[in-house]
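Q: What would this chain look like folded?
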Amino acid sequence: MAEKDDIYSSKAKYDGIFSFKDFYKFCYEWLRDETGLDLQEKKYVEKIKGSSKDIDVEWEGSKKMTEYFRFDAKIKFRILGLSEVEINQDGRKFKTNKGSVEVSVKGTLVRDYDGKFETTASKKFLRSIYEKWVIADRISEYEDKIASACEEFVEQAKAYLDLEGRH
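A: My prediction, written as structure tokens:
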């Protein structure tokens, strides 16, 4: 059985004007291009509430870092009260969205994801020695990479929403 360590968990909230479609696309492309995660949408639910809607989106992604380590991520979006609004920008009117967004990110380091060290008790014992004494620095290095990639995504998402909201 692979060993999983949750390395990073954070949320960002935003309330204001933004294009949901553009934000969705930005987040997906940033995660794919900047972290190399292979993303899959696990959930997309819309609930209509009068003239607005609530949306729940969940993505899961993974990336092999080595033959032993894998980076797994779970990204959740919760959009509340999403409605269409018309705004003026530089004398032109155009439609966009208004609502509340919460983005949560969880990054996990998966060790021995293929279970190569799980076949016997002696291999499990050797793995614990290997991880504690031989690759402890490498584990720490991969944990730092995962944490910084997740933190950078949260910062990029917040910066995107802040810029969008300044129309």
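The chain is about 35% helix and 50% strand.
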